[in-house]
Write a structure and sequence with these properties.
The protein is an alpha/beta fold. It has six helices and seven strands. α3 packs parallel to α4. Bound molecules: guanosine-5'-triphosphate and magnesium ion.
């Protein structure tokens, strides 16, 4: 190969490297207020057919009625994006919401998905309901490649019930634990006093230390919007990391 050929290859490589660095420096953060409902999936085999790009996903998981849909609505500043309800078990499918990046309007692109998952652990769940949950939600949590982490929503009055531990068990079966993230959201903090809030946070932090996954903990109230900025930062970090 002559000197020109070599120089040509080299400069082409340099151009690639420059383009890559530029792409890295202009990468944008998710703008959660842009979230739009995209699609629902009722059965796991249908997931590969869903109109989803290969983009990072962040799922909201937790017991039924713990406040998952409410937290998504607050994060996205949309009152009824994810349907919140007084009837436990309302969310029955994997619901995907697309999130745009914060580039100037003409160049905005979908950069991530938020996923609202059916809750678990409602008292009168029959065996068939549980089986359905295991194959749909359990299967998604265990094997979904683009899933970067979960927001585990737990009522601050009773965090880490056996059903929450079961859920952590599903996640601990993943192959990418070193890169996965759990963010424990202790919800409905407005329902308890300061001492109980501290106690709940301490308990969750102690549990977090024993997990083989990077885990963060925060208190949250959709009622008075406390902890909203912390949730936004954690969600952006999980999706961007
Ligand atoms: N006081 C108080 N109530 C809340 C809070 N967050 C949610 N709730 C209430 O808790 C109930 C359940 O909230 P959802 O967001 O529907 O719960 P979910 O986890 O999505 O429930 P499923 O879809 O059934 O799994 C609703 O009546 C909400 O208004 C909060 O921070 N404080
Ligand atoms: Mg819900």
């Amino acid at each position: 190969m002559g000197p020109n050929g070599y120089a040509g290859n080299f400069s082409q490589e340099r151009r690639f490297a420059l383009a890559r660095d530029q792409a890295a420096t202009v990468s944008h953060s998710p703008s959660f207020a842009s979230a739009e409902f995209l699609t629902s999936v009722a059965q796991l085999p249908a997931l590969p057919l869903a109109p989803l790009a290969m983009l990072p996903e962040l799922a909201f998981v937790g017991r039924s009625n713990s406040g998952k849909s409410t937290a998504i609505n607050l994060l996205t500043q949309r009152r009824r994006l994810a349907f919140a309800s007084k009837t436990p078990g309302r969310t029955q499918m994997l619901n995907f919401f697309s999130v745009l990046d914060d580039a100037p309007a003409a160049r905005r692109k979908t950069c991530a998905y938020l996923v609202d998952l059916p809750g678990y652990g409602f008292a009168r769940a029959e065996a068939t309901t549980r089986k359905r949950w295991d194959s749909l939600v359990g299967g998604y949590l265990l094997a979904r490649r683009m899933l970067r982490g979960v927001v585990l929503v737990m009522d601050a009055r009773r965090p880490l019930l056996p059903a929450d531990e079961d859920l952590l068990g599903w996640i601990c079966g993943r192959e990418d634990l070193a890169r996965f993230r759990v963010h424990m959201l202790l919800s409905k903090a407005d329902q308890i006093g300061a001492a109980q809030r501290r106690e709940a946070k301490k308990r969750a932090e102690q549990r977090a230390e024993d997990l083989p996954i990077a885990t963060s903990v925060q208190l949250f109230s959709a009622h008075d919007r406390s902890g909203l900025e912390e949730l936004r930062e954690a969600a952006a970090q999980i999706l961007g990391g």
